[in-house]
Design a protein that fits this description.
- About 45% of the residues lie in helices and about 20% in strands.
- The chain is elongated and about 110 Å long.
- The two termini are about 70 Å apart.
- It is α/β, with parallel strands linked by helices and about 625 residues long.
- The chain contains 20 helices and 20 strands.
Length: about 625
Amino acid sequence: MPAATVAYGFTREFTELVKDVPVQPGRRTVAGRALLESRVIHIPDVQCDPDYDWPEALKHGGFRTVLGVPLMREGAPIGVLSLSRSEVQSFTDKEIELVTTFTDQAVIAIENVRLFDEIQEKSRQLESASQHKSQFLATMSHELRTPLNAIIGLTDLMVTNAARFGTEKALEPLRRVHGAGIHLLSLINQVLDLSKIEAGKLELSLESVSLGPLIDDVVGTTRPLAEQNKNRLVVEAAPSLGTLTVDPMRLRQILLNLLSNACKFTKQGEVALRVRKVVDNQSWIELAISDTGIGMTAEQQAKLFEEFSQADASTARHYGGTGLGLAISRKLARMMGGDVTVTSAPGKGSVFTVRLPAGSDAPTRAAAGHRRPSGDCVLVIDDDATARDLVAHHLEAEGFSVATAAGGLEGLKRARELRPIAITLDVMMPDLDGWSVLAALRQDSELAEIPVIMVTILDEQRRSAALGAAGYLTKPVNRERLHQLVQRYRAPAPPTRVLLVDDDPVHRERVRAWLEGRQWSVREAANGREALTRLQDDKPDVILLDLMMPEMDGFQVVDALQEEADWRDIPVIVVTARDLDREDRERLNSGVQSVLVKEAFRPADLVERIRRLVQAGQPASSGAGATR
């Protein structure tokens, strides 16, 4: 029941009386009568009204004329607005109309507050659900990939070391198990990718990519698939395509999906990849994958990019697949500012076209009066023109050649073009922030060695973070990717000391088998605490570190490394079956002092820091800015 909780213009005794008294429908009070009849109740003199029966209120309230107007929502009263006069004086029709209008507006306001509270609560629930979903995705990523890592790793060991394990007669079944594991891993990755995209949790690692090598890599992977169905694989690419700012892993994923589909649905025909530059209001790169396969009807094309959808049921039974690849490919392309489209006809094949923004071909010019930058220049990346010019001026005055970039994407492009000896990098930029640029630099094998000096106005205590991890590997680990990463940290005189930290003995044995005989000395630790003990005995040249371990996980190991001055410069390559989110990466970003804070700019410090970096030839793995 509604309760009278507010009284204005009455004695304190009356206010206390009505404060906690529930208003119940009935004829003994004006409010009860308004609730009972759902209409305006006007009593000119309560002392003359035979049904009014609330003597306590009359005693303390001292009123004679009363008006009760119900607050109506959807035909039902939700409260009553009561007015009274201490003398007998009826309310006029105009006054009653005004009060009625006020109560109508009050109901709207109350309803809006109720809806707002509901929306707020729903928002809190959705935010909580989103957090739970993100945690679920990260956990499932680890839980699903961990057993697959064991399956793929063990079968790979048994195939590559058949004489050692006595498995020569079982090579064919083992290869089938290994192939099934790789296929299952691909399916799991597709489901996780789609879930992360839908949840807005998939993050792109944008960098400036040369299309030629990427296309060669994709075609090399696809060629065996084409040969299985006796298809001819054709590649036509314009000679001067230049670079593209994309996530290279995701672009490779898109192209491999489209080319493998073309090879699968075509037999004894032609599969072609044609790449060209197109100008349509802006510059685009078009990658068209065509085939002479079975083709599709208009009806089949209409649902082609829907999740878990294929051309028809018979196609799914005959050719297999989950129906996720094309949906993911289009979503990834759109996240990179492009799209994937299709044209097809039954029996005549299909053409899938990936269109991505090409960006400007013209390299950014240095500020007026700057020398033309060469390969030994310092690259200054900052969206603030004044800050760029200031840093460039002081560097040039000390004899450095300088190039500038006005944003993160442009900076990545210029870094690839120029291969500078050092980079100064602003943290806060509108297109791509400094930490994202730093991550992209560290993941590019050709740029990872360049020392980077972070420039920030954010941290009051003059501290910022550099990417503490020298690289990332996702389980099941790819052998070539492992070699590519650890090769950067090979010691001048062999053997290079590697500390392998992982609670999975199968994975440790697998990595040891890959590195042994390659001028590497591998020591093992089964958890973080054991790793710290190994570090006290002997400092390694590089650490391969699993994140998810009992007792002491990889995050805690990274924290411990930063607390010891002698350990901070050890390159750490993170190995994990878990998808790292932004918070995970921030936990791995640790311990390096920022060289330049804009609000306390000291040009001499910056110049001296760069001079020491250049003279020492220090690798980027020792931290952005190389200053501890």
